[in-house]
Amino acid sequence: MERNVSGSSVNKIEEIEISDLSVEQESLEKGKERSKKLLALLGHPLRLLKEGGKLGLTGVKRFLFVVMLFALTNIVLFSIALGRMLTTGFEFSKLFVVFLVFLIGVSFTIYAGYRTYQYVLISAMIVINNELSSLFMKISETIVGKV
Fold first, then answer.
1. Based on the number of CB atoms within 10 Å of its own CB, is 5 exposed (0-12), middle (13-18) or buried (19 or more)?
2. Beta-carbon neighbour count of residue 41 at 10 Å?
3. Is the CB of residue 52 less than 8 Å from the CB of residue 124?
4. What pTM was computed for the model?
5. What distance in Å separates the CA atoms of residue 50 and residue 72, rounded to the nearest whole number?
6. How many CB atoms neighbour CB 77 within 10 A?
7. Do residues 49 and 60 make contact, with C-beta atoms less than 8 angstroms apart?
8. Taking a C-beta distance cutoff of 8 angstroms, is the pair 37, 55 a contact?
């Protein structure tokens, strides 16, 4: 059974396929650009935290929240230790305890910041992977087509 297809309907189908391809190409280019920017920022922690929110990273706000939460808590605990030392009388052993509280607070704040920064890096890798997944699919399809 032979079907007669008019030329205009074939042209419409080709136009739709071409427009879909151009939209896909445009989104692929935007994704590649964003991914390039994120890849360039991976080696610069402060720039990644500063510019990561503009590029779609959700972990930057969490990083700031965790670091501020730890910093405020440790400032309060250091103030309490310092206040207790000053109200009960000054001794060098108490000064050692206050210094120890300060040192533990700073180290835990740095550790929390480091672990949260690792989360930001993982978030960046997920964004890069999602942006380039269509590129990976096209490369895979091309390889399978050649084989």
1. exposed
2. 19
3. yes
4. 0.62
5. 21
6. 14
7. yes
8. yes
pLDDT of residue 106: 92
For residue 91, give both structure tokens. Answer: 């001794």
Q: Integer distance in angstroms from the first to the last C-alpha of the chain?
A: 34
- For 56, what's the count of Cα atoms within 13 Å in the CB-facing half-sphere? 15
Distance CA 12, CA 18 (A): 10
SS (H, E, C) the chain: CCCCCCHHHHHHHHHHHHHHHHHHHHHHHHHHHHHHHHHHHCCCHHHHHHHCHHHCCCHHHHHHHHHHHHHHHHHHHHHHHHHHHHHHCCCHHHHHHHHHHHHHHHHHHHHHHHHHHHHHHHHHHHHHHHHHHHHHHHHHHHHHHHC
Rg (CA), the chain: 28
Per-residue pLDDT of 33-88, as tens digits, reads: 777 777 777 777 777 777 777 777 777 788 888 889 999 999 998 888 888 888 88
